[in-house]
Amino acid sequence: MNTDQAAPLKESWWARLTQSKYFIYILISPLFLVLLAYVIYPFYQTFIQSVVGSEGAGIGNYKRFFSLESTANLEALWTSIYISVISVITCAIVGVTMAFLIERYEFPGRKILSILVLVPMALPPLVGVLSFTFLYGESGIIPRALQALFHLDSVPFSLKGITGVIVVHTFTMYTYFYLTASAAIKGLDPSLEEAATSLGSGRIRIWVKVILPMLTPAMVASALLVFMIAMASYTAPLMFGVERTMTMQIYLSRTNGNLDMAATQSTILSIVSIAFLIMMRWYQGRRNFQNQSKGISVHRTELRTPFMKYLSMLLSFIGVIILMLPILVLVLISFSVDGEWTIQIIPSAYTFDHYIALFTDERTWRPIWNSLQMSFVATIGNILFGVAAAYAMIRTRFKGKALLDILIMIPWALPGTVVAVNLIAAFSEPSVFSFNQVLIGTFWILPLAYFVRHLPLIFRSTSAALMQMDQSVEEAARSLGANWWYTFRRVVVPMAFSGILAGTLLAMVQGLGEFVASILIYSTSTMPLSVAIFQKMYAFQFGTACAYGVLQILLIIFVLFISQKLTNGKAGAVI
Amino acid sequence: MKSVRLDHVSKMFGTAKGVEHVAIDVKPGEFFTFLGPSGCGKTTTLRMIAGFYYPTKGKIFFDNRDVTTLQPNKRNIGMVFQNYALFPHMTVFENIAFGLEVRKLSKSVIKEKVERAQKLVYLDKYGTRKINELSGGQQQRVALARALVIEPDILLLDEPLSNLDAKLREETRLEIKRLQVELGVTTIYVTHDQTEAMTMSDRIMVMKEGVVQQIGTPQEIYNRPANHFVASFIGESNMLEGEVMEISGSTVKVKVDSDLQVEGVLDTAINKIKVEVGKSVKLSIRPEAIFEGQGPNQLHGTIQLVEFTGVSINYLVQVGSATLKVMIINKGNQILKRGDSISLYVPEKGVYFINE
């Protein structure tokens, strides 16, 4: 008896602390501290810079932004919105059409198309734009080939300006619509349509009254997402020379040394992005058109007439070509001798040197090594934060959950340009959060930027895994005598492992390909891979640039493949 | 083997009440069941004993040790969950060994104990199987072995049979009872199934909406239900209400209507209920307490519905304004048809007065 009663006494203060209902706030405070330090504080610093500025406090910068005398800023805002709206429309058309064709019809080439349709996801933003300029730009392969073929005086068409940006957006972002639409169509129970038919309704009525309403939630969510990403787009406007977009204006203001204006533009763009994020979260909370029925069998309509068969074959062939060309052209150019490709349609001389140089030449290997290191550091941070935050969100109860959720998602909504500007504003001076160091110009600023930008990835994949895990499994471990930490190590982590790993790989690759924030804050000693690609481009070393690009694509394909395996084909949820 | 004492335990969820003033004393080695419909607070009470909830008020003792706010992993309990909660990333062996590894036993001891536990639940050849390669019944037995192998002071079972099909349920029910008797472990069992509760338990606590209705042996609960709810939840019952006509000694005569008057014996020692002439009273008559033929409390009625179950013939009989459920044991007698008239009688012991 004595020993029994001694035990609770010995651990009483610790027990009282851990059993207090406020103990959870001690546990989650590091999460909030990280968010405060690296998301809120930088954002706040940017805002302060925009209102305090060099000419005294006030809203002068905002007046100047919205002034009707010099309309550059308003034009940029308008162009950004214009590009984004058009991108949403074109992406919706392409994505939903593809989803319907592939999910609902059986035609020659359907299988291959259904795999290749996701190829754009394997293109890092910079590399994607690069291959488009090689293919369809003013001196691109396709326009020149057509010119030579038809003996024209000048190229028949070429991608440039706003059109170029929209085409690239459509190609790279339609997958968001495709993924949600095809998931929604897969979830559409054909018996609903059959029920409508049996009740006497015709084809058109079924579409208007049954199919479209069921797809609307998925469509609205994708539209908001594409709009947000298009607003944040920086690479496409940069490469097609569209200077009047918000992201480009921020970049130009910074390079021109007008830091106050850059801060003002960043703040305005952030507000737009966060508004869209909140709209999305709100909408996702409401949407729930889950089908009740289980085990849905898909019947695909077969195309019967020979004419339709040949037509569909031709169209899927063209589709495959369009989807594959960007990657093929990168591979082709990666073998070309630098400086040899000038006015020819395709490069004239080929070599394997670039690939050898990637791993042997110290100067070309350096950026790869830098990126690997920085992405690794950032990913470690993301794992620690993401797993802890996911566990706190899914498994514990505390006030401020909604706040934590939105704070974690904000970095995902913020354009990379804005993240960079915020970090510059916060860490060009020593602060408590950087342990009294100036981070700008050091190795640490880029990993920090990657950490912030990819904050939600591991959080989301881990949350998804934890949500599928029954809480009673943890309780079983506790009842068998395991303490919290033992349970976490032996039960929670192994069970959520596939989710954690999927998110980790994704964060790692995204870090390796990150360009938008890197370009603003890199220093020459820590030049990352994507910035190296950009510089090689401008130095006309196309071969090396493309070899870098192919390396990135291979990494991404590898990661997508692994996470597809890990999540049983639910990788879409992670991305 | 330890006793479990709940000293007026209440649990609130925010402002919503979970359970109120539960006071029980489970003896060492006893099989004690919490019985009630879903949402009655039985699982909440079990989870407080396990340590997953802490009571808002009251205290919990294992023997004389106050465990009210002790963490679940320090209580030395074995728990079987409704969905088994097996670790899907481990084999059968690893699942059963988990609690022993936590206790830092040596490898050889763990191996020996796990193998003995596997034998006990007839899974000795399944050690290397993954959980998803087992049937529902086998998973159930792994969960049981995992809970028992740590030699718990108290075994907690949360609706362990509800995910099994009818046949397996009966088999496993016997199995659990056998292990419990053999090992003599104090057991608390949660269920909404009255058959499970009646057949397995030493004592039963019936709960409703967070409030304890009655605590007693299966016999007490069945024969002397404390109130309307217990009477109707456990077994079938004809609930009647009538006016007290006459009290002579312990015999009370009640008039339900002009065609239906019954006399019953009121034992005020166990049944704390007040009856007064002219006041209304409630009574319950079990269908099997009504017999066909001539005797005390003679009734006459018309058959409305006939059900033949094999063991018994169930009639629904209209007597005056009341409809009585009557169960006649099948001895090969002639089965009556709808519309036939029937003579019935109820021995005085079969009439039971109940509280609201």
From TrEMBL, chain A:
Pfam families: BPD_transp_1
Name of the protein described by the UniProt record: Iron(III) transport system permease protein
Organism lineage: Bacteria, Bacillati, Bacillota, Bacilli, Bacillales
Coiled coil: none
Species in which this protein is naturally found: Cytobacillus eiseniae
Tagged with keyword Protease: no
Residues of the ABC transmembrane type-1 domain: 77-280, 368-563
Similarity-based family: Belongs to the binding-protein-dependent transport system permease family.
Domain of life per record: Bacteria
TrEMBL record, chain B:
PROSITE patterns, alphabetized: ABC_TRANSPORTER_1 (PS00211), ABC_TRANSPORTER_2 (PS50893)
Domain of life: Bacteria
Matches recorded under InterPro entries: AAA+_ATPase, ABC_transporter-like_ATP-bd, ABC_transporter-like_CS, ABC_transpr_MalK/UgpC-like, Mo/tungstate-bd_C_term_dom, NA-bd_OB-fold, P-loop_NTPase, Transp-assoc_OB_typ2
GO MF entries: ATP binding
Transmembrane parts of this sequence: none
Pfam families xref list: ABC_tran, TOBE_2
Keywords: ATP-binding, Nucleotide-binding, Transport
Domain ABC transporter: 4-234
PANTHER family in UniProt: MALTODEXTRIN IMPORT ATP-BINDING PROTEIN MSMX, OSMOPROTECTIVE COMPOUNDS UPTAKE ATP-BINDING PROTEIN GGTA
Protein name: Iron(III) transport system ATP-binding protein
Annotated source species: Cytobacillus eiseniae
